[in-house]
Amino acid sequence: MDNTEKPRRQRGQRTDSKFTVSEPAQLMAFLIEQLPHKNRNNIKSLLSNKQILIDGKVYTQFNHPLREGQVVTVAANRAPQTTQYRGLTILYEDPSIIVINKQAGLLSMATNKERDRTAYGILSDYLKKENPTNKIFIIHRLDRETSGVMMFAKSEKVQRLMQESWNATTKERTYVALVEGVPEPPTGTITSFLRESKALIVYSSQNPDNGQLSITNYNVIKANNGFALVELELETGRKNQIRVHMQDIGHPVVGDAKYGATTNPIGRLGLHAEVLAFEHPITGESMRFDAPVPKIFLSALKERNEE
Length: 307
Prior knowledge:
The structure is a single chain. The chain is an alpha+beta fold. It folds into 3 domains: about 5-75, RNA-binding S4 domain (Structural Genomics Hypothetical 15.5 Kd Protein In mrcA-pckA Intergenic Region, Chain A, Roll), CATH 3.10.290; about 80-165, 2-Layer Sandwich (Pseudouridine synthase); about 170-305, Pseudouridine synthase. The protein has 7 helices and 19 strands. Strands 8, 9, 10, 11, 12, 13, 14, 15, 16, 17, 18 and 19 form a 12-stranded mixed sheet that branches. Strands 1-2-7-4-5 form a 5-stranded antiparallel sheet, with no helix packed on it. The chain has a two-stranded antiparallel sheet with strand order 3-6. Strand 16 (about 210-225) and strand 17 form a beta hairpin. The protein is globular, with a radius of gyration of 22 Å.
């Protein structure tokens, strides 16, 4: 049975193709079956060019699981470039939320002491151009020198829904850090109770009465030149959690003099929010966004004789 929905086409225009999933399958296997004239490399190109959508949302993972009844769209043309501003890129926007990739050096929002250009300010200006009454609401923060995926709400209601259910609805928060030395063992879990001092320095304790429970899972991905690239998954989201926990095990994040680093080979804090996955606060849909590891992180691990 041909499940293809054949849209009307105007002369000279390429059109999208839509396929309805009839039984559970992985995305690559499904596309190979539906697109017999394309090989695996052709299909991988479609994925990397963001031309594959599932129920209207772009997916790039070839092994993404499909459910019966979902509609897979093969777009005729590449997706338009994401909207870029100085300091951030808008990855996704709908009536409820905005997801961005924040660059290192940009504040999430203004503080009493710092009124510099912020992600909050840029997005607020962006929304007000559409409608002067539009507002933006912060859901969670990234440190100024941390780059990566960050989400904002477009109403107080959505902000409250996300913050109140953060632990239940956030399915994955993965960071990548470039750290001094190589953690041993290469995989582990760091657990402590974190508390902030009056001097705004967060410190660890093993006393449950002396801070908030904080859990970080880590895995060394690659190591060279006295540095390691470490993937970190947060079970809790406390202020400076990764930075403190890396210091606790003797492998501070590079460029993080506040928490014990003595080197700065990349000219910035070596911390990046790579993945944020969550349930949409209004639709309940599973959402997943990723921001690739900055190339400068990998440069510190290159062999000295590499180009």
